Structure prediction request, 308 residues.
Amino acid sequence: MTTIKTKRAGRLTATVLMLLAATAPVATPALAQAVDLQSASMAEAIDDDDAQATDAMVEPQFDRTSEAAEQQQAGDFYCGERKLGQWFYCERPKAKPSVPQASAQPQQSSAAQLKAITKQLDELKARAILEPSETNVIAYVRYQREQLDRASTFSDTWQRALWQNPDIDYTLQRPVSTVGKRAWTDNRAATRDQILSRLGQRYGMFYFFAQSCAACEVFSPILRSVADSHRITVMAVSTDGGPSRQFPNYVVDSGQRQRMGVPLATPALVLFDTVTRKTVPVGFGVMSADEVMERIFMLTNSKPGGDF
Prediction:
């Protein structure tokens, strides 16, 4: 700034001298020459200064440090002294501190929820019994009603699911309705009779009895009818040596029971497989004819769990 002011003063002085020289009376040659020399030297000085100023403008050099310092001073003035705040970018808004969220509690399992409901129901019931006030009784009845409604909804949904998904409907295998059960029973009986009619080709029966056994007197005629109707051979074995009116061709036990592993109980009915040479106990005690045929059918023609 000082250099620029000096240049302007020099130019002004040269201009004033030139005007004085033009308006003044004719001076002596020596004085005129002195003025001309001074004017020329000042003009040259002005030209040199202009050239330096031009060079400085062509290639400007800025001091980044001083500029940053000036900005810092301005910022201190406006933001520090005048306290203009965040709307003039003096203070950036501070982010709200994040509040740590409480970890979500694990959801209670369905089994635990059902257990809690049962516990609450028992508690309300006990309170209503021990303290039979109107409030306690109403609370128990209302809570019980809620659970009954829930159970009714479950039962209804269960039934609808069975209707629409035959693969999970057990009643298609074992009907429970009157008409369906009668049809299933008749079909089962026909299949069973057909199989039992050929059973005597492979199987025979051992019948262990005793003359002193009252149950044997009841069961012997039943077994006789089953054997005759399905042509099954029966070998009667007397455990005490006494005869049987239904099976006159009996034999006395001479260790057959022990070899077969049959428990000491009468009457006892055992199947004998002539192919595998194995025994299959059918049952002990008094049995009806239908029960005997059903057991023989299941033991020889169905796998465990096949009917269920």
User: Anything to note?
Assistant: Residues 134-164 form the longest helix (31 residues). Confidence is low (pLDDT under 50) at residues 20-32, 53-62. The radius of gyration is 62 Å.
